Amino acid sequence: MTPLFFFGTLRHQPLLDIVLGRVLTPEPAHLPGYRVAWAKGESFPMLAADAGRTAEGVLAHGLTDDDMDRLNFYEGAFSYDLVDVTVEGATGPVPSRVFMPKEAPWHPGADWQLQDWVDQWGPLTLIAAGEVMRAYGRETASQVAARFPIIRARAQSYVMAQNRRRPVTVSSALTREDIELSSLDRPYEKFFALEEYETRFRRFDGQWSDTGARAIFNVGDAVTVLPFDPARDMVMLIEQLRIGAYAQGDPQPWLLEPVAGIVDAGESYEDTAYRETREEAHIELSALHKVAGYYPSPGGIAQYLVSYVGIASLADDRKTMGGLESEGENIRNLLVPYDQLVQMLESGELVNAPMVMSVQWLMLNRDRLRA
């Protein structure tokens, strides 16, 4: 079988192992007449024709039909095809093939270095690749591609959680090292994922618990923003159908909420707050004030939320409908005077948890913000 030349992320051995489902060690090689460049604005590299340059990479020999099926599935999710090239291997020119985009909508940027990519994107990509390859054999590459943004967002949530540290004053000293995982099944992975764990843990008396089953709903990190205009003393609320309320039997499943959205791969919580406010409410924030970072329901949901109050100029003459049609969103926004907002909280009209928390924070900080 014709060997494959890898110039980009598949040069990262842990990623190649995940994609192939086995260990295969390629040999160094290079492709004359090209350079490896960052695709501008993206998290991956591309080949750019350059007569005076050489694209460094690796050459994979001994690929099986199953290997090729797995590689085509993984790269097919990114609309890549195989193209014939001749590379320089250890013993001279070698006819080979390389994955290239069917159509290249990207423009080459600065030179790409594998270690730079590993440092910035490696951990996230390995987690995302695991989910992509778990879909091999039960979904098409195009189906996986359609949900690739949430796959990467979920992966980023895991990476960010690994780096999160809380102050410890009265908390116990127990950590992840005090949990033993015996099995993990994922019977459902789509926009959201269902994960079933079999674990045991160290009890507060130092003894080990019995092994037990736990199921969690893996969502991905998100932010909420309550826009507040200190000059007009008004907030903006959004309203939309929430299927969770409908599924529980609530006769009024349209809920009043702050702006909210999942943190995309490569975004900070603040980046998401600004982006989602533009998308859902069509307003620009001049400042963000953090309300809290928290787990909304850690007994059954793997998600970390960061809530903000955002400072903005809220005009009566504005676009009142928002959301992305591509995601089936139908969102309206409305302005509410502060005094009425407090009454709505006290009456029970506001039942969204981040909404309640943000309003309570605003009640404590309103005078400072208006000053």
Written account of the structure:
This protein has 371 residues and is of the alpha+beta class. It has three domains: 137 residues, Hypothetical upf0131 protein ytfp, CATH 3.10.490.10; 63 residues, no CATH class; 149 residues, Nucleoside Triphosphate Pyrophosphohydrolase, CATH 3.90.79.10. The protein is 29% helix and 36% strand. It is built from nine helices and 18 strands. Strands 10, 11, 12, 13, 14, 16, 17 and 18 form an eight-stranded mixed beta sheet that branches. Helix 3 crosses helix 5. It starts with a strand and ends with a helix. The model has no long low-confidence stretch (mean pLDDT 93).
Short descriptors:
single chain; 371 residues; alpha+beta; Hypothetical upf0131 protein ytfp; Nucleoside Triphosphate Pyrophosphohydrolase; 3 domains; 8-stranded mixed β-sheet; 6-stranded mixed β-sheet; 29% helix
